[in-house]
Design goal:
By secondary structure, the protein is of the alpha+beta class. It is about 35% helix and about 20% strand.
Length: about 475
């Protein structure tokens, strides 16, 4: 049974400002993806029946009201300014609707929460008229068991979503989440529009300009065949072999685990498409600046990672030879990942004019794990152990959709027990068999390398071919 209730919030400040660079980047992506822009929605489920005193709806409503006042992003809408450009409009008070699902079976509350999240996140937001958060509650016999948050990506990124879940738990359990973040999206937008902010953004774009000149115009220059319908397919690899293999390889070469995964995906794309240089756009969290770590806003933007396969020439060069150069290249990209998207668009237009063709990597990488874990402690796995773990890997196609503004989007999630690697791709450039081939090959390259048998770079195209890419 479902019902609705409302939560009133009041006591915050109001105001308006231009979009932040992160918001503008998502706004542009929404424009390229609409009407399928629900693709960018972020969902989180907070269990509340696992510990602590029982929580009823009035207690939760008080915590939700405090959360809405605490984080300005949750009460900000995107409206058209006098010049028709989008602006963020912060409201001081309002009402938020909450969907309440009463679940009679205590064993079914978790499933009910996931179903409620799917329902709330499946629709695009009305950015000018709707709060950028949809809230759902699952109850059993009056006790709240789960809170569901479906979040607009214009309000926050994945890191910010975790902050919201943390703060809501503290507000429910303790009545306080400590001092609020001093930084706000409005303040950030005004600072980015200042002369100092513009200079910082221009320096970041200079890195992009230099990197794009070294790389192919695009990583996917020609269709492989007619697209499927729906056009974009998501392949998924669930691997228990990847966590120990990534950790061992990262420790041995003194790089991050994320860099290992990024380098493997970039090298395989380059090899599959016949490039000697790979250009990949990893998502950068942009939270290193003081005051940004606990800011609920969308700070993430595309970075540029340029991997030069030709820096390690010779028939015997192998995958691990790439890692030493990949680490500083990744760091340089992440440092130059905060910029005005309007300037980025203009840069791509100039580059296209100079080269006589569209310039865009169309190749993205997103490690959604919040933090790098230290590499070092456990004994590197033996080759036979990794072989046994690989037998438990699972490949499937969990989703399809009609429109995504990219051709290759790799996402990594999970923890020390298993990694989930998903690849959403344009089937005109990567047919379904090729999507699975890339996922298998990423696991093969990393696992074999950690076991002391790294594949030669010259063998990477053949590895993809033998995995059934059809190329």
């Amino acid at each position: 049974m479902e019902a609705t209730t409302t939560v009133r919030f009041t006591g915050g400040r109001s105001g308006d400002a231009p979009l932040t660079w992160g918001q503008r980047a998502i706004w542009h992506a929404i424009g390229r993806t609409a009407p399928n822009d629900h693709y960018f929605n972020i969902g989180r489920v907070l269990p509340l029946a696992d510990r602590g005193a029982p929580v009823d709806l009035p207690r939760l409503a008080g915590a939700l009201a405090a959360l809405l006042v605490r984080h300005e992003a949750l009460r900000t809408m995107i409206v058209a300014g006098a010049d028709k450009e989008p602006r963020q409009l912060l409201h001081a008070e309002g009402l938020v609707e909450v969907r309440v699902h009463d679940e009679p079976d205590p064993a079914g509350t978790g499933v009910a929460a996931e179903s409620l999240l799917s329902s709330l996140a499946a629709r695009r937001f009305d950015y000018a008229r709707e709060w950028p958060v949809r809230i759902g509650v699952v109850r059993h016999e009056g006790r709240v068991t789960h809170v569901v948050l479906a979040l607009c990506h214009l309000a926050t990124d994945g890191h910010g979503a975790e902050i919201l879940v943390r703060d809501l738990r503290l507000l429910v359990r303790r009545g306080s989440a400590g001092p609020a973040c001093a930084e706000t999206p409005l303040d950030l937008a005004r600072r980015q529009a200042s002369p100092a902010g513009r200079r910082s953004g221009e320096a970041a774009l200079a890195h992009w300009e230099n990197g794009l000149r070294q790389a192919p115009a695009t990583m996917f220059p020609a269709p492989a065949g007619p697209p499927r319908s729906p056009r974009f397919w998501t392949g998924r690899l669930l691997s228990v072999a990847l966590p120990p293999a990534v950790e061992a390889l990262a420790a041995a070469h003194r790089v991050s685990g994320s860099t290992v995964l990024l380098t493997a995906s970039a090298a395989l794309v380059a090899a599959d498409q016949g490039h000697s240089v790979a250009a990949v756009m990893p998502i950068a969290g942009n939270r290193a600046a003081q005051g940004h770590r606990n800011l609920v806003s969308t700070l993430s933007q595309d970075a540029l990672f340029v991997l030069r396969m030709d820096d390690v020439p010779g028939p015997e060069a192998d995958f691990t030879d790439l890692l030493a150069g990949a680490w500083p290249a990744a760091l340089a990209g992440y440092r130059a990942a905060a910029y005005d998207p309007a300037g980025w668009d203009a840069l791509l237009e100039r580059a296209a004019h100079e080269r006589g063709s569209e310039v865009h990597p169309y190749c993205c990488f997103n490690d959604m794990r919040l933090a790098e874990r230290p590499t070092a402690s456990r004994t590197p796995p033996r080759a036979d152990e990794l072989t046994a773990l690989r037998r438990r890997s699972v490949l499937d196609f969990p989703a399809t959709q009609e429109r995504v503004a990219c051709r290759y989007c790799l996402h990594v999630s999970g923890d020390d027990s298993a990694l989930t690697v998903t690849l959403t791709a344009d089937t005109a450039f990567l047919p379904p068999a090729a999507i699975h081939a890339h996922l298998r090959a990423i696991e093969e390259v990393i696992v074999s390398s950690s076991a002391g048998a790294p594949p030669r770079l010259a063998a990477l195209p053949g590895l993809l071919a033998t995995e059934g890419s059809g190329r």
